[in-house]
Write a structure and sequence with these properties.
By secondary structure, the chain is mainly α. It is built from 4 helices and no strands. The radius of gyration is 18 Å and the shape is globular.
Length: 120
């Protein structure tokens, strides 16, 4: 989505989180109507989606674009390895997430250094 649509990363994250929460409500309601749902789990998921959307929408506006892109890419990569159950994924996924966090931090550090040099 970052490559195809002319939106900032923060808007895409907010939109994606909102759509995920809406999909959760629709899917949960459908399963409820058909009697195939764990009401406790559904309630906690639905309840958690509201502060999740509010918190993430506030956070993504404050995170710089480059670091947010690195973070999104990292989470998607780790999710993909977990989804296909790549050999050694129990160790690989946390390693990918830590390296992605370091990469996002380095991206922000490089941006701040470039800005400091430009101001000097």
């Amino acid at each position: 989505m970052l490559l195809v649509f002319p939106l900032t990363a923060a808007k895409i994250v907010g939109t994606d989180i909102f759509h995920a929460a809406a999909l959760l409500w629709v899917a949960g309601s459908s399963y409820l109507v058909h009697g195939n749902v764990d009401l406790g789990a559904m309630g906690w998921l639905l309840l958690g989606s509201i502060p999740g959307v509010l918190f993430a929408s506030k956070l993504t506006v404050r995170v710089p674009e480059g670091a947010l892109r690195v973070g999104l890419g990292t989470v998607l990569l780790a999710s993909g390895f977990r989804l296909i159950e790549f050999p050694g994924y129990t160790i690989l996924v946390p390693v990918i997430l830590v390296l992605g966090g370091i990469g996002a931090g380095l991206t922000e550090h490089r941006r701040l250094n470039a800005r400091a040099v430009a101001e000097a």
